[in-house]
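Example 4.3 (complexes with small molecules)
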Amino acid sequence: MKILAIETSCDDTCCALLDVNQQSDFKILSNIMSSQIKVHAKFGGVVPSLAAREHVKNILPCLEECCGFASMGKDVDLIAVTMGPGLAPALLVGLTAAKTLSYIWQKPLIGVNHLEGHIAANFINNSQLTINNSQKLLPVMCLIVSGGHTLLVLIKKFGDYQILGETRDDAAGEAFDKIARILGLGYPGGPAVAAGAAQITNYKFQISNKLQKSNNKPKTTSMGEPFKIKLPRPMLGSGDYDFSFSGLKTAVLYNFKIQPEKVKKSKNYIQTMCGKAQQAIVDVLVAKTVKAAQEFKVKSVMMAGGVAANQSLRQSMATALHEKYPQARLILPELRFCTDNALMIALAAFFKTRQHDLAMFKNSWRDLKIAPNARLD
Ligand code: KG4
Ligand code: ZN
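Answer. The structure with KG4 bound is encoded below.
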């Protein structure tokens, strides 16, 4: 079965073609992504009306590149599209394209929840996993961390999600983006903050190597960290599984404001702040996920969403699980499938075809609507 998927929930125009056989083995035939980062970077974040305008410009060239849509219609068996959550004007572009193709080609159309797509991304090119052995992983504790969401989800079976906690204000990715903006690092903030933090880690590593070689003791413990930066771990001890990151961003802002101009612009300060902010976010995400995994005695822990690409988060999660709950298997999506892509939407649609008859989706081009605030549960 060939599945053509379209994803336009935010600022990337994505199309993919996936071929899945009877045994659920799949082959990636095409995976196209047209990024709008340059358009939004000057505004420090995604502007919904601009995102929609760019999707309109990009969607047909992306489809053409993905499957040569004018001639390929006969080879596509199913169309999948993101319904939400996401930006309404952006979602509308993808849904309209998908409905049009479904109508013209007379092919079934499945609407997919974007977050379900992020969860499905764990199965793409993951040699540990196949769709057929997925039942053995259950129950799963999944941390979904993206630009718009921070959720801890208990998955008892795929398609049945219990949200244990979510953010009360900013999402983890949003916190990365806002902190990057304060520090003048541009958009998207996550990779920029992570890169800044990595410089500090490297610097410290080099210093400690040098000291070890020369058998010296450090003269101060604050080498590489000459600034007083103490950031909170919001809701770490709240006793529930909710998150809050807006106070952390404010703490970064206050610290930044009191620094002299020269310090604010210095690499050392910016990189130190990146390291501290990243650590604060990672500490809270890891502690709550591991606690939830223990409490619900899950067999596996998964991560999903753009922030799951963060190396410090991936490593800290692996270390904490190994120490505190080694029974759980940690499953991580490949780095390039953490952020938005259409392959994950195709795969999530395939999961649905295993639960429902394809004929059910034959006429869904008539009724499908965008769902900008769709929930997982
Ligand atoms: O899942 P995604 O592509 O889009 C949404 O559904 O929101 O996630 C985008 C978010 C952005 O906030 C971006 O800054 C963050 O993921 N992100 C990262 C990293 N790569 C992307 N955050 C931390 N570290 C990264 N390496
Ligand atoms: Zn996403």
